[in-house]
Amino acid sequence: MKVIITGSSGMVGKAALLECISSPEVERVLVINRKSINISHPKLNEIVHNDFSDFSSIKNHLSGYNICFHCMGISALGLNEDKYSHITYTMTNALAETLLELNPNTVFNYVSGAGTDSSEKGKIMWARVKGKTENRILSIGFKDAYAFRPGIILPEKGIKSRTGWYNLFYTLTKPIFPLLKKSDSVITSSQLGKAMINIAVHPQELKHLENRDIKKIARL
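^ thats the sequence. predicted structure below, dont judge the formating
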């Protein structure tokens, strides 16, 4: 498979990238980021792109891919709904529309989050916006699409979060990682990356994937 990944400078995107690099199922990987991740590998190509609401300037580089891992995201903390919607919904939709035009047989994996509101009517702003984004991705017309809703993710393979207090939490809880990994409600970054690859090979009827679902798919 030939994979596009966004957000590979973050914990989830980097986890997906590392699993793609090591997977025999993946032939080629294109990462699209605002700044270089400075990783070199024979499978890997990188595009540094500033405006994620408009992909016209790099459109010629996006053909020929059959799966996308859209891992780019941001915390809603300190953002109003318009700003958060622009980053979460508008930018995701711009990418999706571009890829659908170029590669209609794409499988699109959107990394959402636990607690997302599919009704788009709840009181929690970020959950409504993510729900709207999920609904758009699942209905836009891709060959297949999934909304990954990870909750607690334990980092592996040297991966760190860009959020400082997450890293503090991971440092404090690292002694009990082996215990936490036994819970169906907890996944590792490696399991998330593997599940995103496996779902292209093993399509699922369930389209909203919580931690317990992600964990099962990672074992396929």
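The chain has one domain: 2-218.
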